[in-house]
Design brief:
Radius of gyration: 22 Å
Structural class: alpha+beta
Strand order of the largest sheet: 10-2-1-14-20
Number of helices: 13
Helix content: 25-40%
């Protein structure tokens, strides 16, 4: 490898930051470009009411081996930066939900005990869940032909209650796609590597204790800079051109800069725009799903009985929330702050922020049987309208490798066994970096 080989990484999300770390570590001279003033892409920090909040509440899994390894690489201790909870689906008492909590026992014993102890499920529900788990393991978590998740669940005679209380919210949380449209194979992949893993810790749920930008992107940027490479924020790339000996980037400020290699780690829509003059790197058309996080601030003394609860959503009566998180149990400076997540609910984005805040606060007051929650001190709605791609059956996803050996793509939308997750982004960034490292070796 030439020690002066220069590579541009366009996009400072988790995929781009990972590619930059890996390439800088391999000895390349990297310039990481991010158009906004904050690194992290769709998993970043924003400033609201003089507080640093995440643009959306994220749950990581113990199965995210590459993400956890990458955190350690840039100097973050996952055990202190993440709150580790056992697998659970717990609804507030009195709301006709369920209480499913996996004990800290070896796999698969933890799932068997959790199923035996689960409240809110009848015998038929528990038998259906056991039957599904046994059948999925027997099939090695593979389908001969992909279908939607609801079809898969009906095929294995899952009860209506089990679908409503467990499978539907799990699918929405994992794939951010309704069960009537979501890929059953991708859903099985997630279940295989978490619920079906040989180690119990793979199914653990990991909640960030620090803001998302501090958790990884900012540490990754510092890592890259310490190796002599550059991180440029607030700089948009307007066009990418192929040259005789590399690539030329046209910047928004009117300058052009050349590089030996490129990692394009933006969203597919932005990538398509940047590649208009390069017709042999196709970006597939995709549809997208929103995720809304409604933050509600109460008095500092306000706290939930546990860090998170599942909620029974019913848009027909204005119950939009699907999960609520007590941010005060994650960060001391967020005491009294609750974060309510609304996935796959496009209709919720049609409401004004004040209307949605009022509706979500009323839902919490009802579900948690605490009337005072209907009156927050303030609320903030943050919506990522294109948070993830719609993870539909047999979806064709592009590869990191392109027709040009010195040009790689990176992003959670690329071909992966997982949906659009942080783990998919990190894996893709590592794969893109490996492709260029091999090429320039």
């Amino acid at each position: 490898m030439k020690t002066h080989t220069s590579i541009a990484v366009i996009g400072g999300g988790w995929a781009g930051c990972t590619a930059a770390v890996e390439l800088a570590d391999a000895g390349f001279h990297i310039t990481l470009f991010e158009s906004s003033r904050t690194l992290g892409g769709r998993a970043r920090t924003v400033s609201v009411h003089d507080q640093l909040l995440d643009n959306g509440q994220h749950i990581l899994l113990g199965a995210y081996a590459d993400t956890l390894a990458q955190l350690r690489k840039v100097g973050v201790d996952p055990e202190s930066a993440l709150l580790r909870l056992p697998l659970q689906m717990r609804y507030p008492a009195g709301c006709d939900g369920m209480d499913f909590l996996a004990p800290r026992l070896p796999a698969p014993l933890h799932m068997l005990v959790a199923l035996f102890r689960a409240s809110g499920l009848a015998r038929d529900d528990k038998m259906a869940l056991a039957r599904f788990s046994t059948s999925a393991r027997w099939m090695d978590w593979q389908l001969n032909e992909d279908c939607d998740v609801l079809t898969l669940l009906e095929r294995f005679d899952q009860t209506e209650r089990l679908i409503r209380l467990l499978w539907r919210p799990l699918c929405i949380a994992a794939l951010n796609t309704p069960i009537e449209q979501a890929s059953a194979q991708v859903f099985l992949n997630v279940l295989r590597d978490s619920l079906g893993a040989k180690k119990r810790t793979a199914s653990d749920m990991l909640l960030p204790r620090i803001d998302l930008s501090s958790l990884y992107p900012e540490r990754a940027a510092a890592y890259v800079q310490n190796l002599g490479s550059k991180v440029t924020i607030g700089c948009s790339i307007k066009n990418i051109l192929k040259t005789d000996d590399g690539w030329a980037l046209q910047k928004s400020i009117g300058e052009t800069q050349t590089f030996d290699g490129i990692v394009l780690a933006t969203s597919p829509s932005i990538a398509s725009g940047l590649l208009q003059s390069i017709d042999d790197i196709p970006i597939p058309a995709m549809t997208f799903e929103p995720i809304t996080t409604c933050y509600l601030q109460y008095t500092k003394e306000t706290s939930l009985a546990q860090p998170m609860f599942a909620l029974l959503d019913d848009p027909a009566i204005g119950h939009w929330g699907q999960f609520v998180f007590d941010r005060g149990q994650l960060q001391d400076d967020n005491k009294g702050l609750l974060a309510v997540v609304i996935s796959t609910a496009n209709a919720a984005t049609d409401l004004t922020h004040s209307e949605l805040i009022q509706a979500v606060a009323a839902q919490l007051a009802d579900a948690l049987q605490q009337p005072q929650l209907a009156q927050p001190l303030w609320g903030q709605v943050i919506t990522e309208k294109r948070a993830t791609f719609s993870c539909t059956p047999s979806l064709q996803r592009a590869e990191e490798k392109t027709a040009h050996a010195s040009f790689a793509l990176a992003g959670d939308y690329l071909n992966s066994p997982y949906p659009a997750t942080i783990e998919s982004a990190v894996r893709s960034g590592k794969k893109a970096a490996a492709l260029l490292t091999e090429h320039f070796a």
